[in-house]
Amino acid sequence: MKYDFDKVIDRRGTDSIKWAVKDNELPMWVADMDFAVAPEILSALRNRVDHGVYGYTEPQDDWYESCIGFHLRRHDWKIEKDALLFSTGVVPSISSAVRAFTAKGDEIIVFTPVYNIFFNSIVNNGRVIRDVPLLLKGGRYFIDFDGFHKAASDPKTKMLIFCNPANPVSRIWSGEELKEVARIAKENGILILSDEIHGEITAPGPSYVPFLKAVPEAAPYLFTCISPTKCFNLAGIQTSAIVVPDETLRAKIRRQINTDEVAEPNVFACLAAATAWSKGEAWLDECREYLFANRKAVEDFLVKRVPKIHCLPGDATYLLWLDIRAICEDDAVFADFLREKTGLFVSKGSVYGSGGKGFLRLNVACPRSLLMDGLARLAQGVSLFEKENRR
């Protein structure tokens, strides 16, 4: 490999949320990577830092062109320049959209288990979560279209916040599934916000299906949040885009993100994104290979060492969904035990809503040596837990 993903970089003392842990603890929870960014990005940022003047800035042609070019090359998805809005992040965009298109007391659909911050964007704005659990069949998750239709037909329901690909269950939704989601939404007057921040983190080979590419005719009631932050490890830069082809929707969301003061980039935000999109693809492709080799290492380890834990198959994200129900039905109890006894810090499945109880989310975006350390701690934790519970 051209890029070194095996290098262990000490992130303690860098104000990292992920690494704000005790000395003996290994964090494998929050979704950022323990890899240095692509050297092309680092070089661009260094040059900007060396300039020494950090005044106000706004997106320029290179930001638009790099975003459009990247998505056209990788997904054959043509994004029009006029459809693009800058935002400081996908989560701020979601919260702004909730305020722009719904009223207090309205219900918003989520397919659970799903990224838990969706719940915050709904509840913190005085809206109501309408939970439509995914269906788990043969170790794979599917959308409950009957449940979605029932929820969408309720007059109180106004929006669907959709995760494509799905975090934490690692599903790439097919074009057929997306078309059915769009059909039900249209029939019932439901607006769709598609969070596609994990779209580039897929197994080498398969590509995710952008919702607006699969169903371009849904533009009057569908818009998408994208960002290079997950796939290029730029979360702290705070940079994203909203793709809104429909002029009426775009005017409303533009007004709201400006009202919420999340429409203006910091001095590094557009530069980092444009460099990633225009010069970072070689790094991204190697990173994907490394991440899915890490997934394979976890799967092999569990089969050999901890067969009671099942890693659900997945073709997207660096977040693995582990079924621990053969060991403990209460994921919170086991996750707390694991952290206390071994120092391994993982995410509790129950925080992701219905269907998450009895599961853990494991972040494998780290050097292989840290991954194997984490797996050894997991095996130790299972052994200790079973010993204590046999007494």
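(ticket continues) Second input and output from the same batch:
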Amino acid sequence: MKKTSRQDGEKNTFEKIYDVVKMIPEGSVASYGQVAEIAGNPRWSRVVGYALHSNPDPEHIPCHRVVTKDGRVSDAFAFGGGNEQVRRLKEEGVEFDATGRVVMEKFQMRF
């Protein structure tokens, strides 16, 4: 997997992932698998995590909107841990169930 851009203007894997994450609107979430599939390879779920952990522009790439397929947040959320991810999502109106998971049926983005 290459992380840096090619000279010919083709986007690298991380850039493709960031482009997809930028599409997730406020108040919605997407799963790592969704992001991976839309970015070009359904097997990139783990790569999505790596990309988000090294997010170069958290103000414009809303990595807090990416959760597991069952709505769990990441304890390894790079910008303050799982509690910060929950705080940011709740601030946007995203609701959580009694187990602390995002209510995916209501808040998962449909690409």
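Agent notes: The longest strand covers residues 30-31. The helical segments are 13-22, 32-39, 45-53, 81-91, 104-107. Closing as not reproducible unless the customer responds.
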